[in-house]
Amino acid sequence: MRIAVVGAGTVGTAVAVRWLRAGHTITAVAGRDATVVRAARWLPGVPVLPTGDAPAGADVVVLGAPDDALSDVVASLEGALADGSWALHLSGARGLDVLEPLERSGVRALALHPLQTFADVAGAVDALPGAAIAVTARDNEGTALGQELARDLGGRPFVLADADRPLYHAAAVFASNDLVAVSGAALELFTAAGVPDAATAMHPLQSATLENVRRLGPQQALTGPAVRGDAGTIDRNLGAVASAAPALVPAYVTLCRVAMDVAGARLPDDRRRAVEEVLAKWS
Asked: 19 and 139, same structural domain?
């Protein structure tokens, strides 16, 4: 299949590399200034063209633009895609509606989203195999094509309803982005507490925790003062956080409440009330 990539950033470049290795032809890529350097490194011989020229001759035009820029990219491509070709976006949060201006001229709409984190191209190329990949299409033909392309990335396709994409993406934010944000907060507090090489020190803790979540599920994997209802410990924690990094107090309070909800029946009602009294004092 002949594939062009418009918005060949980290993800766009990585999927192009994987599809090229699977036997597809990457006809062209387009993007910002850094795209030229990425293409030379990862897609040697693939032409880097202006956005409006990149779709020429492609069966599938992949849109790798950021979520909020996707509408503008679609508008810039009106009239550039061949009737009957496919426009495929890689956004997890956007639905097929963003592609409607192209569909009005006979273009087919498709969306793929790998449920994986991609910080750089090398890591993304390695991380795609085995990743779950959400496929959203208008019809069975689109679903079949999306599943084929997902498998050619090395991924495990699953069908995701168009209406469920924002909720799915919110879940991905909790699973990945918020995990990184909380890690940053933990690193700040470990460093303030004088833990040497704090990033290395906390890595085994986090790795074991994620493995426990995989093996046992969140409720049984949960440990710590929230699931035990240790109101005194939580109060002392919050006092220390308030002294070292006061901006993190609201996050601790909110996540403690989330943890108690995850704990469910493991946390007796009287202990939950005791913790809530402490949290109310710090809210």
From this structure: yes
Question: Which two three-digit tokens encode residue 239?
Answer: 């006092």
pLDDT at residue 197, rounded to an integer: 97
What is the torsional sign of CA 42, 38, 16, 14? positive
Is residue 9 located within the same domain as residue 144?
Answer: yes
Domain of 62? Answer: 2-160
Last residue of a domain, one of 91, 126, 160: 160
Phi, psi of 215 (to 5 degrees): -75, -40
Q: Which two tokens stand for residue 261?
A: 């909800």
Domain boundary among 109, 132, 160: 160
In whole angstroms, how far apart are CA 272 and each of 27, 237, 269?
59, 17, 5
**Exposed, middle or buried by CB within 10 Å (0-12, 13-18, 19+), for 240?**
middle
pLDDT score at 166: 95
In a shared domain, residues 147 and 70: yes
| Predicted TM-score (pTM) of this structure | 0.91
* Alpha-carbon gap, residue 201 to 186, rounded angstroms: 11
Q: Give the residue ranges of the chain where pLDDT is below 50.
A: none
